[in-house]
Design the sequence.
């Protein structure tokens, strides 16, 4: 089926099934175009928790679909690309979390949503790249464990000189790949451009940034900025909504190599088939879901900044 026809069929089926299509900002353009909401991890989790739809179709990676089921267990969560797994989420196990707790008794565990349900189940509270600072600010303890992303944890540390943020050595391979040399070269090539970085980038890259934000935070910043040119330090998928929302501005990737393959596995055909067959589904086992829910809910209850 050609693209336009398939997109129209998906929208028709979604209506029939009372389904809500959620897509992350890194998803392929044609997937973003058929979604009801395109957003960052926080926006998508909030929408999954609040929607009255009976079915959620999650176009993203597995931890995001799991989070949708954790907050909305009464809904069917369809996950069209079941092989789409976040490389960072796979770096940490529940045993790693328990070992860190044992090594740092009394320190609360703040877990980045880019983690699997069984890791969230071992945690006190979750965070995303959009709210990590607000989440840590709610914790009175001086020692905090923040996992699995060492770059996000070190970014958060900058805001809390009186706290010690203990981190696990996980990372996003695509953000961690970006070097300060590449950023400097991009700045030389585009001297008028601002450099915007995702907090998953390494500290030496964050040092060079004019602004640091989640993917939706980047979209907001670029929409509202008077500047005309931006170097984007995140996965290249974000260039599509940036250019769509700002046709008069220029966006350059900090590196062409920042491509998360897992985020590109969703296709229109797979979304169509998922809605037609009502599978594959994501369901988190109830005992893990209940424990993970405490940490996710505690995060969602923090007012948005
Ligand atoms: P955001 O929550 O900023 O969209 O980030 C998700 C992600 O996977 C970044 O690599
Ligand atoms: Fe995971 Fe990195 Fe892909 Fe985000 S970009 S989903 S952190 S592997």
Sequence:
């Amino acid at each position: 089926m050609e693209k336009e026809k398939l997109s129209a069929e998906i929208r028709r089926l979604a209506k029939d099934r009372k389904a809500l299509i959620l897509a992350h900002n890194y998803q392929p353009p044609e997937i973003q175009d058929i979604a009801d909401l395109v957003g960052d991890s926080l926006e998508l989790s909030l929408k999954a928790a609040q929607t009255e739809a009976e079915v959620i179709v999650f176009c993203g990676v597995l931890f995001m679909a799991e989070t949708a089921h954790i907050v909305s267990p009464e809904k069917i969560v369809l996950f069209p690309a079941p092989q789409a797994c976040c490389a960072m989420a796979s770096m940490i196990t529940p045993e790693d979390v328990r070992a860190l707790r044992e090594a740092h008794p009394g320190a609360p565990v703040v877990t980045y949503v880019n983690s699997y349900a069984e890791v969230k189940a071992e945690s006190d509270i979750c965070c995303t790249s959009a709210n990590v600072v607000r989440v840590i600010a709610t914790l009175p303890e001086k020692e905090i464990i923040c996992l699995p992303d060492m770059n996000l944890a070190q970014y958060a540390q900058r805001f809390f000189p009186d706290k010690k943020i203990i981190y696990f050595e996980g990372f996003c391979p695509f953000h961690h790949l970006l070097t300060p040399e590449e950023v400097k070269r991009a700045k030389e090539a585009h001297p008028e451009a601002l450099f915007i970085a995702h907090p998953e980038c390494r500290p030496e890259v964050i040092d060079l940034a004019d602004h640091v934000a989640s993917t939706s935070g980047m979209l907001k910043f670029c929409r509202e900025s008077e500047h005309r040119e931006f170097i984007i330090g995140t996965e290249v998928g974000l260039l599509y909504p940036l250019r769509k929302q700002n046709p008069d501005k220029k966006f350059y990737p900090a590196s062409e190599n920042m491509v998360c393959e897992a985020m590109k596995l969703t296709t229109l055909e797979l979304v169509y088939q998922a809605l037609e067959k009502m599978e594959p589904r994501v369901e988190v086992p109830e005992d893990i879901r209940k424990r993970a829910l405490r940490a996710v809910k505690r995060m969602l209850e923090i007012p948005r900044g």
About this structure: The pocket of 1,3-dihydroxyacetonephosphate (ligand 1) is lined by residues 25, 40-41, 114, 128-130, 172, 200, 214-215, 235 (CB under 6 Å).
